[in-house]
## 1
Amino acid sequence: MKYSYYPGCTAKTTSVEFGFSTEAVCEALGVELVELEDWSCCGASSAHSLNHELSLALPARNVALAQDTHLDLVTSCPACYQNSLKADRALREDEAWRRKMEETLDFRYNGEGEPRHLLDVLSHDLSLDEIRARVVKPLKGLKVAAYYGCVLVRPPEFTGWDDAEHPMTMDRLLEAVGAEAVDWSYKVDCCGASLTLSRGEIVTKLSSRIVNGAIEAGADCIATACGICQINLDTRQKCEREVPIFYFTELMGIALGVSGLEKMWGKHGVDPRPLLRERGFLA
Amino acid sequence: MTISVEGDLTFRDVVRERSGEDIHSCFYCQKCTAGCPTAFVMDYAPAQLLRMIQLGQREAVLSSTAPWLCVGCETCGTRCPNHIRLAPMMDVLRQMALEEGYVADPAAYALHRSFLSSIKRWGRVHELTMLMEYKTRCLLAESSLFFRGLGSDLMMGKDLVLKGKLAFIPERVKRLDEVRKLYAEAGEGNK
């Protein structure tokens, strides 16, 4: 199983735990990721905020690069994923735009290099049984609130591989590695995303509400699939107790016994080590 | 009885055309407002803004803070019974506001502008210099914006540096000319 891999700008910096655990978990599961050569930024939320054409052009460059590899384009960042999807759709459906981009970027659109999110790939290209078979340290007794956030599963006409109001793919993966996924009401609520810089107080309110929801549901921790969700929930929660915020790939990594994760725990805002030690997942 | 409409009725057609969303079909059920995570800080809630567009209240809409507080989470569009996606509509309103000189939230604008200039410079975002440009732009726009949240920004910055999560040296795309060409074609060459 082989894919083009688009890490995105934060995979080695503010979301280094996600970048590291994505690569480690894929390796442990026999999923080969080939980093897209000379990839560029997708424009995040800033391109579509200020300039429509640029918001389709920036990710189109990555879609064009991915086509040459004839492999699906996998990313773990929901913003990269969403922007790549929109760019791919515009290239497919808008003939005039496609011709313009083909000329500017010197490529021929052939519909290959389909943008996909890592959660979709791990949930649908592998079977849960294959994943279960590779577990060496089941996350027995760990109660996790699977948090999907916003554009990972929305809008459904773009994503479509999970329910937009009540997604379950991450819950199933976490259960496959032995954790208990709790039922809770905030799995698709928004954390406030990029407002964290310009209006931090709004994000504190939204993120704390989500973390409180996980506490009410009896969760020990939250699992996310997005760098900005992780950083917002991790650093802006103001709740009765501190709740560790993991990337779902970090939790899978513990269960699959990947090495190197211990270097990630100190990078979290809320230190997850006390919880992991208490449950016997960390010596 | 005579009902007079004083609004600009071409406005709604422009917004419909540019966003590709059928704004006219809104019957004001307000599910968008009910699900919006940031409606509580907007001057006009999403459903109100839609109705104002229908009524041609161009100036009030373009000077509203709502498009700047919309984070594009797509909850509204997912739940709309008429399949109106408000996120692309908010994008268009923000872009039209800029074209006509309205910036209801200078800090949000400074952030997006700094982000885009970082991509133009390196091909990828370099967080450290992007954040420095953002704070400078805030200072130039309105000095109070520079000081708003400065303490927590510095604390967070210190934490990120200590945890080794901010790169000092930017990663530069090899074929940067391709990225810059995309900027030029989108009319962003000189911004």
Note: The domain at 11-99 of chain B is CATH 1.10.1060.10 (Fumarate Reductase Iron-sulfur Protein; Chain B, domain 2).
## 2
Amino acid sequence: MRKAVSRIRLQRLTRRFGSVTAVDAVSLDVADGEFLVLLGPSGCGKSTLLRMIAGLLAPTEGRVLLGDADITDVPPRRRDLAMVFQSYALYPHLSVARNIGFPLRARGWSRAAIREKVAEVAAALDLTELLDRRPRELSGGQRQRVALGRALVRDPGAFLMDEPLSNLDAALRAGTRAEISALHKRLGATVVYVTHDQVEAMTMATRIALLDKGRLEQVGTPAEVYDEPASVFVARFLGSPAMNLIDATVAATAAGLAARAREVELPLGIDAETPERPVVLGVRPEHLAIAGQGAEGGIRAVVEAVENLGSEEVAHCRAGEARVSVRGPRPLGLRDGDRVRLTARPEHLHLFDADSGRRLAWRPAPVTTPA
Amino acid sequence: MVTGAFVEVPPAAQAAGGAADAPPAGARSRAPWRALWRRAVRLAPPYLFLAPALVLLVVWTYRPLAQTFYLSFFSWNLVPDVPMVPVGTANYERLLTTPDLADSVGLTFVVIVAMLPFTLVLPVVVALLTRRVRGRAAAAYRALIFAPMLVAPVAGAAVWQWLLDPSAGIVNTLLGTGTNWLNSVDTSLWAIIAITGWHVAGFAVLVVSAGLTGINPDYAAAAQVDGASRGQITRWVTLPLLSPTLAFLLLMTVLLSAQWTFPLIDTLTQGGPVGSTTTVYYLLWEYGFRSHDAGLAAAAGVLFFAGFMLVASLLARISDRLSRYDD
């Protein structure tokens, strides 16, 4: 039923508004059938990027390709893409049936064919009872489904979704998240999905593209971007509470290389020597373990507050100038004012360049044996 | 062996105990007038805020309305020392038997229908075409369109009289005709309508532009992605969503066309020639202040008021239904 190729390629796509660069030379390859999430804080350019893919906004530079066709200058109505808007943009004067049927009406389908197709889509989305209602008579979740139905009705080459869940309450959002994921699996369609919600990104995406200030920070599977953040921005953006980031120095010790700061000494598990260099040390709250008082090294911290998350607890601590949070099963057994020693396994430590914020990886130098 | 039973845990509010809810003894025995005064002071502000508007409405609208109704049952020539003679419904009978009334209602209907191109069609076309003008150009453009509205009708009339002059007027010079626009039965009403249209079209463009700005641009964007052409978007999305604005303009046109034309008729044609520009308001004015027949004028006023009221309520109901489109 579906068209064969709906791969979307962006080549150095750029959009400037006056002196502001909203999207800065973004190149991205969205494979056929992929669920790509554009993730970033508000103002990072993700919605601008999506609107350029949809054709609603002309790029200042760069190209958009759908399949093998260059669609940069093709008007939106000839692009074979469907879009779900954050506001849903359901036509308020039309019934649910006419809203869903709108794309077919624009394509000149016959009334009977439209009715048949709309009924099919409505049945799939559990909207059959609501076909005669106006959008204002629907709940938030129902409106969301109608918007989805309007996108589904014409079997488009790809789906574009602009924060489609942000107007739903928390319980409904979790359910709809699962529905959209299931829909994607069933249709095998290409989806480009914009959100600022890391939970949506982590749970739904086959790949996540993280944007910051119009630039692409990292593209990868949810596991990749979470486990190996490419920059301090990515490290800080994903995870709740955010990754602990401590200004530190890498130095050689008797036990190999270690990251050091005031009250901090964590071995990196690398038995080598390297000149001292300033870094940003990152470690996720769930990767910190509370060690016995006798242990050597680690982070010596004072507990400042303990948050109860129900199943888990987060302890917010201070170590030297740095703030460090620890996350673990409840109860952690910590109270305000407690002195703790925190350790982490070397593979859970992330190092970033102190200036550029990019991830640092260890490259052993070729062994030079003295002559 | 230890025995026991499960006991329901009481909700928090109940557990806290109910003693605090009881009012303290003796609170009600305070002086009742003081409580009343306090209540009055607390309730007064909204009415005080409403008072100026209410007073003006009563003094300038409702009182004259009631007086007109009262006056319509008397014969009086507006001279203060001459007594008002009660005549019952004679004024209404006279009014309904003269051909003047039907003629003026017919003319007013023509005026209203002929005004619609200026207040609905033209403004929608202009507003849609100029939607893409942005920034400073848009402001300058709007000022240009709105300018005629700022010209006092009487001043505008003086200039138009000069432009439409049968021998030296620029209109005849440009058209190469020798029509006596304002003084021939065939053209006088159309001249009045065209001048009024020139006068109010800018205002209507502004209203439509405001209506267009109020439409969420997401609808047009969604329609574009859904595959609609520009014409389809205008017909299927923009115009239906603009319908409350259009209904408002229709209401304005129906209710106010006769008023808009009045100063022009009074300065340019005085209802003539041969009554060809005597609309309902001009008829009323003629009865009252030309023939000094206050009773007849009042009766005409009452009838027109009732008629316009009926039309207005009908249109208001339609526009209400349209307005519910908005989410």
Note: Chain B touches chain A through 22 residues (CB under 8 Å).
